[in-house]
Structure formats: structure tokens, C-alpha cells
Hints:
It contains eight helices and 15 strands. By secondary structure, it is of the alpha+beta class. The strands form two sheets. It has an eight-stranded mixed sheet with strand order 3-2-1-4-5-6-7-15. Helix 6 packs across helix 8. The structure holds S-adenosylmethionine.
Amino acid sequence: MMLEQLGIQPGERLLELGAATGYNAALMATLTGADGHVTTIDIDEDLVAGAREHLAAASIDNVEAVAADGALGHPETAPFDRVIATVGAHEVPAAWLDQLTPGGRLVAPVRLRGCASRSIVFERDQDGWRSLGSEMAIFMPLRGLGDDARRVLDLTGTGEVTLQIHKDNNHATDPDTLTGVFDSPACEVWTGVHFVPMESFEWLDLWLACHLPNPLMRMEVAPAAKESGLVRPMFPSVAMATTAADGSLAYLTIRAADPDPDGGRRYEVGVIGHGPNAQELAEQVSVEISTWDQASAPAPSDSPFPTPRPSRTPTPASWSWTAPPSP
Ligand SMILES: C[S@@+](CC[C@H](N)C(=O)[O-])C[C@H]1O[C@@H](n2cnc3c(N)ncnc32)[C@H](O)[C@@H]1O
């Protein structure tokens, strides 16, 4: 999927961040062909040694595997026609953009507002950089210079419920106000928004990540906290949550709902709030979920045949960076 996003052409010069086994670099080398070249970088020297061995065993000789911090790109073999990160970036290092040719393309898994991870295609336009599309993709984060420094807050004091936070939401995730938040009563808000089994939550997560004042965070729940009824997360051991500066917290939950008109199983999304303004925060999240549901209503079908449950429309999304004009 990411190689499709990258759209490699024969004879291009390519850079990959995150060499690991060298497998993806081998695919890139094959796509660009004998006239092209791939530089692949990993921060772990032993992985680079392994990648070199694998590439040699596959008789691929147009790949250079380099041990370095990929956040700096690779000025020695720049410029590149395409750059791909097979490692997660919280913020896109400037070197990746600077080392692209004027018509070049970047594909990178970017963690938006610290939580919604999407592989985004970027190309230059007259004002800077503009996205051409995105797909859900979650990768291990960059280590080293580009480390996104996520932290984990213990919400219960026992490690049973933790919240993964990062610098974009620190202002409303103060450990002093949030620890013990589940000691206050829970308030539930049910949204009337339904999902069917196996339906992806990616567009809802993206919407909430971009629309809530404080973005979503990953809340991890140990079995004991679930079994005691302290927390009812949406997934077996995880729920997405948001917080307010006053120490309130709201997280997503789910319950079985009445079957749809065709008898299919479905689930209703809800929000559970705790803390001084639990009701207000849970309602705020619920309103955003309903707004997203209306915005993603299935497109009208012109098929003469009834479809059991038409899919939601993906949330339109685009990202851009303005860049200063060239000197
Ligand atoms: C999911 S793996 C990449 C898979 C690889 N493309 C393949 O085909 O096997 C992510 C890799 O990114 C590497 N990595 C993490 N931080 C890095 C950094 N700052 N620079 C370069 N590589 C990094 C990790 O060591 C890991 O090997």
C-alpha cells in the first residue's frame, strides 16, 4: 500500500528510513530498476548488517544500506526523487523534505496530534507541501533525534489504567489532577451512532483527533480494572480518551445495540466521563461523534440492487505545510 502511494518510476533515486530486514528496500530497488538507486537507513547497526546480507543474497546491487539516524536523511546521496519512512514520525523531519528533488514525493506515517497515525503522501505546491492522500498505518516511532517523547500517566496509582500522552496534549493532562480520576462517579452518554462488526474506527478516530480541543490519547486497561467494573473500554484492553484542563477525562465505550433492519449485528458507541466536568466533556465528545456520523453518511447509491449496509464515506482530510519562498 505504501509502495503504491510512493509511485516509484524506473531510474529514480530513492531514500528509505527504517531498513530493518532490507525487504522493502529490495522491492524499491526492483521497482526503480538497474538505472535507479536506493539508500536505506537504520539506526541499529546489526539490522543494517543483516539487511546488507539479505540484499546480497538476493543479488540486489543497487541498494546502499547505511547505519545512521534517519531523522537527518542522507545528504551524501541526496537529492532523491522519492523518500519513504517505514518508521513512524510524530513530526516530519525537515531533512526529508529538503533532500527531495523539486518534483519529489514523500510518503511517511505521521502521528497526527499525537494519536491518529496515517501514511500521508506529500508533494510540493507553490506554497509549500500538500498531501495527496492518506491511509491508516501504524509504525514503531523514530528513535533518536526524531523521538516523539511520549509519556505514560498512571491514572489509578496501581498501573491498572494508563494514558499515553505527548507534548501536543500536555497542557490538559496534568498528572496531579488526573491521578485518581476514576474515584469520581462515572457519567455515561450514548450517541445513537452504530458500527457493524469489523467496521474500522479509523475515520472516527481521525475526526476526533482533529476536532476535539484536546486530542485523543490511548488509554490502556489491565484485566483487573475491567473485571472490577472500574473501566469499560471500547476494545478489550484499550480505549481512546480525551481530557480537560480541570482534570476531567472522557473515553469511548461500546455496547450491543438492536439489530439493524436487515437483522445484522451492530454496536452503539458511547462516552464515559469522570472528574469535575465529566458530563460536559462526555457530551462534547458525543456531539463530535454525532457530527462525524452525519458527515460520513453513505453516498447515495445508483445501484438497482439493495445493498445490505452501504459503507460510510471516508472523512475528507488534507494536510499542508507552508514553506518560505526559496532565496
Ligand atoms: C518497521 S521497521 C522497517 C521495516 C523495513 N522497511 C523492512 O523492509 O524490513 C522500522 C525500523 O525503523 C528503525 N528505526 C527506528 N528509528 C530510526 C531512526 N531514527 N533512523 C533510522 N531507522 C530507525 C528501527 O530500527 C526498525 O528497524
